[in-house]
Amino acid sequence: MITLPFGAVCRGVSLATQSVIHQINNMLYNCEKWFIQHVVTLPYRSLMPRFHTPIGSAAYHDLLRLAQDEQVGEIIGTPTRVSVKGRVFWYDKFRVGSDMAQRYIGPDSPALQDRLARLDALKEAREARRRERTRLVRLLRADGYTPTDQTTGSLLNAFSRTGVFRLGGTLIGTVAFRHYEGELGVVLGADALAQTGDMDIASFERLSFAIGDQVDTPLEEVFKSLKFVPSPSLDPQRIWRWAQSSGETLVEFLLPAQGEESLRDLPALGVSAMALRHLDYLIEDPIPAVSLYRSGVLVQIPRPERYAVHKLIVAERRRAGDRLKAQKDRAQAALLIAVLAETRPDELREAYEDALARGPRWRAQIEASLRLRPDAHAILTEVTR
User: Fold this and answer.
1) Among residues 270, 302, 334, which one ends one of the domains?
2) Are residues 322 and 246 in the same domain?
3) Structural domain boundaries enclosing 327
4) Which of 37, 107, 162, 292 is the most exposed place for a label (fewest CB within 10 A)?
5) What is the pLDDT of residue 7?
6) pLDDT of residue 5
7) Pfam families given for it (predicted)?
8) Which pLDDT score is estimated for 34?
9) What is the pLDDT at residue 90?
């Protein structure tokens, strides 16, 4: 705190002068207090999210619906329900020569059942649906939604076409964060959308084994066609990272750790993946999203409320040399918390309370992050009252 050295200055001076010095010290104290509250914490106090127009929001969710219709419309055989370890999945069963084959469609849900009931109509409307998707993407760009860049878009399109997201792959990290612009209708801005060049895809190991299906084209071939090469690993027999030979993009595959953080296999995707803690929380019950590339690419991302809380944990797990990344993690979390408190407070509260209930280490990491983001802490305190 800035103050005048009262004792030293006041030796030998009158009481009137001492009173003036005391008043000046009070003024300095109040000025510094105001500066800390209104200037130093300004970035934390400015969480006033801006939203896209209702027309843009409606257009995005129409595009998402049409992209999901398109995926189901690609069924070539007979949709069949299959129970696997207590869960119900749908498969496309068809004949290949004299043999029967099956292709994984997705987990059972009312929305999927509705689309399957309209399968013939969805197939007939394919061309009209393509034209409408193109129109909606054009409308969203005009409304200020951020289109996906060429490198990211080509990767997502290739992954979507070969079945990465259909088979349980979930985008995480900043590439996933960009898709909340459409899901939540919020203007993210250039700073929030700044990317590191990395793309992370996570999946549950048990789901990858349970569904009994694989990507249509091996990912090794997909990466080779896009000029990516395997990145060196401690285990040369297990490849879990690919680097772009002519750029800075790095793609990594991850899965939730059930014990130690080590390399494991994801048979549905045909790759290995690094096991990390806390990912089970992040990718639980993911949601579909559309990337604004070409006529829209259907992907899968974490629920925004889980992404926000998970980022608070990730920021605390960063190494000492990754302070800028930790700040970015907390900034993304704070922005989503502000948006969700306004639009989906119940979902935000449930995700926050779920994380806090997972043990003292979870609580300690979340609380440590929130001490550095008093804006987000204040919002969560209000939401959980």
Assistant:
1) 302
2) no
3) 303-385
4) 37
5) 45
6) 45
7) NTP_transf_8
8) 42
9) 96
In this structure, the answer to whether residues 126 and 80 fall within a common structural domain is yes
Residues in the chain, pLDDT under 50:
1-11, 29, 32-45
Q: CA-CA distance, 382 to 385, in Å (whole number)?
A: 5
Q: Specify whether 206 is located in the same domain as 339.
A: no
Number of domains in the chain: 2
Residue 2 has what pLDDT? 41
Among residues 259, 280, 302, the one where a domain terminates is 302
* Statement to judge: residues 251 and 141 lie in one domain: yes
Buried b (16+ CB within 10 A) or exposed e, 160-190: bebbbbbbbbbbbbbbbbbbbbbbbbbebee
Rounded distance, CA 139 to CA 11, Å? 74
287 and 367 inside one domain: no
Q: Identify whether residues 96 and 230 lie together within a single domain.
A: yes
